[in-house]
Design goal:
Distance between the termini: 29 Å
Shape: globular
Helix content: over 70%
Largest sheet: none
Oligomer: single chain
Number of domains: 1
Number of strands: 0
């Protein structure tokens, strides 16, 4: 129970940060924000990872860190354009994508219910697009980010059992940080963060949602089943929607909420298959 409660707290933090990030991006450049965010996460994990770096898995960690960076770049760029509620639910579709990519990459059979989940997800997206509260380009960017997260999750579950989880996560954070720093410098975006809004978003996303969030998730997944963990991860979407309504004064109306509800239905239907796919990705568990 403490492990599951800890994961609920993490998903709540992840959901709330959508509002903070959207506010921060109004006054601070995108890639500079991501570079500093992942720098904070890297520095936080450094002391824990330092004694374990020999079993970090530098090459696969750097690759998965790059995938993570792609996901966050697309998600954050989309969040600049669309609403917090839309971004939260669309991001949650990685649960639907995960078994699909597990099949495409490793031939793990997809349950028929996943097809229903994908169909509901598409219907939910269409309802949200019809409402017009978000931005089609922004929603598409977040959707692409969700797909990138799914690929990262599939590959991570397949390969990271060989490496120390804390050290591997550190390498991922470092890889993303280096990538975003290079881009920010090339675009002339890198500058010292200023203001409470920006620093609050950076500290919460870098420290709590990033470094500590990943550590808690790793700790919890070693103490519960993949199905329970996957189900709790889906809470990020409604937490984001509530944050958008309560903190960002967003108004979806009944069609918008219907679209979110339909997407959530697709996520919950696909969740057992996603958990099974992750379990079977581990060698010897087919």
């Amino acid at each position: 129970m403490p492990a599951l409660l800890a994961l609920v707290v993490v998903t709540a933090v992840w959901g709330i940060t959508f509002v903070q990030v959207k506010d921060a991006l109004e006054v601070y450049p995108l890639f500079a924000f991501l570079a500093v965010r992942f720098a904070i996460a890297t520095l936080t994990l450094g002391p824990f990872a330092a004694p374990r770096l020999r079993s970090a898995g530098w090459k696969p960690g750097a690759l998965l860190g790059a995938l993570l960076a792609v996901g966050y770049a697309l998600q954050t760029a989309g969040l600049e354009r669309t609403t917090v509620s839309s971004a939260g639910f669309i991001t949650g579709l990685y649960v639907v994508f995960t078994p699909v990519f597990a099949y495409l990459f490793f031939g793990i059979r997809v349950a028929r219910i996943v097809v229903v989940g994908v169909g509901l997800a598409v219907l939910g997206l269409a309802l949200l697009a019809g409402v017009g509260v978000g931005d089609p380009v922004g929603d598409a960017l977040v959707l692409a980010g969700s797909a990138a997260f799914s690929v990262q999750i599939v590959l991570m579950e397949r390969y990271t059992h060989r490496y120390d989880p804390v050290a591997f996560t550190f390498v991922e954070m470092l890889s993303a940080c280096v990538g975003f720093t290079v881009i920010a410098v090339a675009l002339g975006q890198l500058e010292v963060p200023r203001g409470t809004t920006v620093w609050a978003a950076l500290l919460v996303t870098g420290l709590f949602a990033g470094a500590l969030g990943f550590l808690v998730a790793t700790w919890v997944q070693a103490r519960t089943t993949a199905a329970r963990a996957a189900l709790l991860f889906t809470l990020e979407a409604p937490f984001a929607a509530m944050a958008g309504v309560l903190l960002a004064d967003e108004v979806l109306g009944w069609p918008g909420w219907a679209g979110c509800a339909v997407m959530m239905g697709g996520i919950l239907l696909a969740q057992p298959s996603a958990a099974d796919a992750l379990r079977r990705l581990l060698p010897g568990r087919r």
